[in-house]
Write a structure and sequence with these properties.
This protein is mostly helical. It has a domain of 272 residues. Helix content is 76%, strand content 0%. One of its GO terms (biological process) is protein ubiquitination. Keywords: Membrane, Signal, Transmembrane, Transmembrane helix. Belongs to the 4-toluene sulfonate uptake permease (TSUP) (TC 2.A.102) family.
C-alpha cells in the first residue's frame, strides 16, 4: 500500500514537473527531451533507457499540440496571414536530419559515456552564449525601433517575423499541402527502414541479424535516399522560387541574410544537428532551434519550424516503440497528454508577453534559458553516471557498433 502511494505521488510529481518543462520548452520552440529524461530518471527512478523511450512520447505530445496550435490559430494572427512554419526549410532539411539521427545513434553506441557528456556540455554551453548574444542583438534592434516610433518616425519593417517565403492565397495553401505530402512520404521511407533494422535495443519486425550484411545494406540505403530527396526538393524549390519572383516581388523571401546563403547550408546544418541529436540521445529541437537562429532565421519562424520538424522525428520513434513494444504504454501516454496541454499553455503565455512588450526577442531568451538549464542538468546527471561506471570498474573506452 505504501509502495503504491509513493508510486502515485511520484507519477503526480513527474506530471507537474513535466507540465512546467513542456510549457517552458514550447514557449522557446524546443522539444524538451533534455529536461524530460532527467525528470523521469531522477523523480520516477526509471532506467535511462526507459526514461528515454517515455520522453519520446512526451516530446511528440508537446510538439503535436504546438504544431496544431500554430497551424490553426497563430498563423491567422500574423500580418497578411503569413505562415509561421517555413515549409521550404523543413523540406530541404528533413531528409538530412533523419539521416543524421541514424548516424548519431551509431556513434552513441560506439562513444564512451564520458565523451558524450563532455561533448554535449561543451556544445550546449557554446550554443547558450551564442543564442544569448543573438537575443541581445534583437533586443537592441527592437529598442531602437521603439525609440524611432516615439520620436515620430516609422519602424523599419524588415520582415523579421514573417516566414522566409511568402505563400499567400489559394496557390500558397496548395503548395503547403504538396509540401506536407512530400514530408509524410519522407517520414514513411525512413520509418520503414527503422522498422527493418529496429532500434534502441529492440529487434526489427523482420528479425534482421544486427550488423549482418542485410542490416548494413538497409542502414547505408538511408544515404542515397536522403541525398535523392534533398536534390529533388532543392531543384523543385528553385524552379518555384524563380516563377514566384517573376510573378510578384512579395513572394520573394524576406530581405535578410538568410536569402543570400547557399542552398546547401540548411541540409548540412540539419545533418550535423541530426548527428548530434542521435549522439546525445535527445530530440533535435534543442539543437536545431539555436542553429536556425544563428543562420539568421527569425525567432517565430525558427521556433515554429523547429517544432514542426521535431514532430516528424519524435513521432517516428514513438510509433516504432509502439509497434516493437514498450512496457506500460498507459503511463507514457498520460505524460504525453500532460505535455500536450502544457505546450498550448506555454505558447499562449509567450504570445501574450510578446504582444504586451512588443519584443519577439523574448523567444530567443527563453531558448537561451533552456540551453543553460540543460547544461546544468545533463552535465550533473552525466557526471553521476560516469562516476558510477568508474567506481564499479566498467569499461569506459570506445566500443564496436554491434
Amino acid at each position: 500500500m505504501e509502495f503504491s502511494l509513493m508510486s502515485n505521488l511520484g507519477t503526480v510529481l513527474v506530471c507537474i514537473l513535466s507540465f512546467l518543462a513542456a510549457a517552458f520548452s514550447s514557449a522557446g520552440g524546443v522539444g524538451g527531451g533534455s529536461l524530460y529524461v532527467p525528470i523521469l530518471n531522477i523523480v520516477s527512478g526509471l532506467s535511462l533507457k526507459t526514461a528515454t523511450s517515455f520522453s519520446i512520447f512526451m516530446v511528440t505530445g508537446g510538439t503535436l499540440s504546438n504544431v496544431l496550435y500554430t497551424l490553426i490559430l497563430r498563423s491567422r494572427r500574423e500580418p497578411g496571414g503569413q505562415p509561421l512554419i517555413d515549409y521550404d526549410i523543413a523540406m530541404v532539411s528533413q531528409p538530412c536530419l533523419l539521416l543524421g539521427v541514424s548516424v548519431g545513434i551509431i556513434c552513441n553506441v560506439m562513444f564512451p559515456e564520458w565523451l558524450i557528456t563532455v561533448l554535449f556540455a561543451v556544445f550546449l554551453a557554446s550554443a547558450t552564449f551564442k543564442t544569448y548574444g543573438t537575443g541581445m542583438k534583437r533586443w537592441r534592434a527592437e529598442t531602437a525601433s521603439v525609440r524611432r516610433i516615439l520620436e515620430g518616425g516609422s519602424a523599419v519593417d524588415d520582415g523579421a517575423d514573417q516566414a522566409l517565403l511568402g505563400q499567400k492565397g489559394e496557390d500558397g495553401r496548395r503548395r503547403q499541402w504538396v509540401d506536407l505530402v512530400v514530408l509524410v512520404t519522407i517520414w514513411l521511407c525512413f520509418f520503414v527502414i527503422h522498422l527493418f533494422i529496429g532500434g534502441d535495443g529492440a529487434k526489427g519486425v523482420f528479425d534482421i541479424k544486427p550488423c549482418g550484411v542485410t542490416y548494413w545494406f538497409v542502414t547505408v540505403a538511408q544515404i542515397p535516399i536522403a541525398v535523392a530527396f534533398t536534390a529533388c526538393i532543392v531543384h523543385q524549390k528553385r524552379k518555384t522560387h524563380i516563377q514566384s519572383s517573376q510573378e510578384s516581388d512579395q513572394a520573394i523571401s524576406v530581405k535578410n541574410k538568410v536569402e543570400s546563403l547557399p542552398v546547401y547550408v540548411f541540409p548540412v546544418a540539419a545533418l550535423l544537428t541530426g548527428v548530434m541529436s542521435g549522439l546525445f540521445g535527445i530530440g533535435g529541437g534543442l539543437l536545431l532551434n539555436p542553429v536556425l537562429l544563428q543562420i539568421g532565421v527569425p525567432p517565430k519562424t525558427a521556433s515554429s519550424t523547429t517544432m514542426f520538424m521535431v514532430l516528424f522525428c519524435a513521432s517516428m520513434s514513438m510509433v516504432q516503440f509502439i509497434i516493437l513494444g514498450v512496457d506500460g504504454i498507459v503511463i507514457p501516454l498520460v505524460y504525453a497528454f500532460t505535455c500536450f496541454v502544457a505546450s498550448i499553455v506555454g505558447l499562449v503565455v509567450i504570445e501574450r508577453a510578446i504582444r504586451k512588450s512588443g519584443r519577439v526577442s523574448l523567444i530567443v531568451f527563453v531558448v537561451a534559458a533552456i540551453l543553460a538549464l540543460s547544461v546544468v542538468v545533463i552535465a550533473c546527471s552525466g557526471a553521476v553516471r560516469v562516476w558510477v561506471q568508474y567506481t564499479s570498474g566498467q569499461y569506459m573506452g570506445f566500443k564496436m557498433p554491434c
